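agent> Task received from the user: take the single chain below, predict its 3D structure, and emit structure tokens. No templates, no multimer pairing.
agent> Plan: (1) validate residues, (2) run structure prediction, (3) serialize to tokens, (4) report one or two observations.
agent> Step 1 OK, no nonstandard residues flagged.
tool_call: predict_structure(input=
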Amino acid sequence: MNSLTSLLPMTRMIDAAFRNQTEDWNEEDRAYAATPRADILEGNEEYRIIMDLPGVQNKDLDISLENLTLTVSAERKMEIPEDFHARRRERAGNATFSRSFTLSNAVNAEKITAEFDRGVLQIVLPKSEKSLPRRIEVK
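)
tool_result: status=success, residues=139
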């Protein structure tokens, strides 16, 4: 028996545990799984929000700003071809989601930009002049 064959029973147990866990998912669980996570980074002159949005098309992505609330909304459409049926579904299928981020006055809202490339959304939020560090001259 080689080392790969000895791992087969363990692989089957993990697979069975995962299958039992996901078969009981309700719509709320599926929506949570479909909601993309975000990294929020801070640099010297800007903040960045980076989100992985696999399966989302640029045309199905909407970013808005209202009263210092930045909202990212999207719809992912994952269709099964007509001549197939799902034997097992582990990936989040069709999903509509929305994530909101509350900004502070430290962000220059007029200069926010966004780029979407290969399923990764990157939003650049420049810091306002008032929030940037500065030297104060001593007289």
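agent> Step 4: summary for the user.
The chain has two domains: 1-27, 35-80+91-130.
agent> Done.
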